[in-house]
Amino acid sequence: MEATQPTPKKTLYSAIQPSGSITLGNYLGALRNFVLLAEDYDCLFCMADLHALTVRQEPAALRRNTQSLAALYIACGLDPEKSLIYCQSHVPEHAELAWILNCFTYMGELSRMTQFKDKSAKHADNINAGLFAYPALMAADILLYQTHLVPVGADQKQHLELTRDIATRMNSLYPGLFVVPEAYIPKTSARIMSLSDPTRKMSKSDAEDSYIAVLDAPDVIRKKFRRAVTDSETEIRYDPENKPGVSNLLSILSAIKGTTPEAEAEGLRGLQYGALKEATSEAVVAALAPIQERYQTLMGDKEYISNILKTNAERAHYLAQKTLRKVYKKLGLYQV
Ligand code: TYM
Hints:
Layout lengths: L9 E7 L7 H15 L2 E7 L1 H4 L6 H17 L8 E4 L5 H10 L4 H5 L2 H9 L6 H15 L5 E3 L5 H17 L8 E3 L33 H9 L17 H14 L3 H7 L5 H27 L2 H30 L5
Parallel strand pairs: 1-2, 2-3, 4-5
The structure holds ligand 1.
């Protein structure tokens, strides 16, 4: 009888910047999907600390946030024995490939990036070259591992498209160089909005009452939802354009429950906004409770976290080196 080879799994890659508290937006837009997809792919999940340096970071906070993010990845359900959870700065090939990709990325492309425009406006006193070249580093993260699928929130779509353009451009010059990755963007929770200004995305770099942190205590979560901006009408209806605050709450609630915002609106028909806020905060509190509990246990064993990061960085380094060598060779860098 002929032995059938198991088909190798495709590669999935994603990263989060350890630049502050991880928010409900990060969780629903990205992290939760990492967990849902992890079984079917060979996965790498990175703490993008080099990306975080594009805005000023307090060194002790950056260190703490990086360790905390590693624990949170695991607490959310990622298995570090199966998925590679590692820190970007521990694998030097990211910065090396980023340099190469910088040489194949146009100034015009980078200056069209909305994240660059937003962050330049927000940090007008620190519009550095790293902030501008940020998408080339992100492309390097992804292409270094010959990635097929990249789960992200909607705000990263443009960066993913640029990554694909760079990969396609380089493949046409050097055939077979990179796998061209696909973005995986969830339907209802791709863009969770700020609680204090629902026309803006929820962001870890904004004021604390505008976001729910995955590690917020239940009472803090309830308080933040109670204060969430809605509108002066009373009807619970899913209409992101005209009712951004109410629609955001419905998106959050339905993402947690695995339903649709329209179905949640229907279920709450005739009730006041207070009922929507309460249903949403209770659903969020219940979903985050087991994560918070596992997180606390993990943070009690920092050595475990460091050991995981150490071994996983070695494994990532091995994979990254393979691609980088191939790139250097195909581009004509002299090998000895
Ligand atoms: P970051 O750290 O800003 O966010 C991490 C992930 O969370 C998603 N996200 C959201 N999703 C829904 N609603 C929101 N309000 C919301 N806010 C954030 C983001 O889309 C992202 O998926 N450049 C990336 C990090 C990165 C990366 C990569 C991602 C570096 N290298 C390689 C994928 C592949 C970033 O700043 O994400």
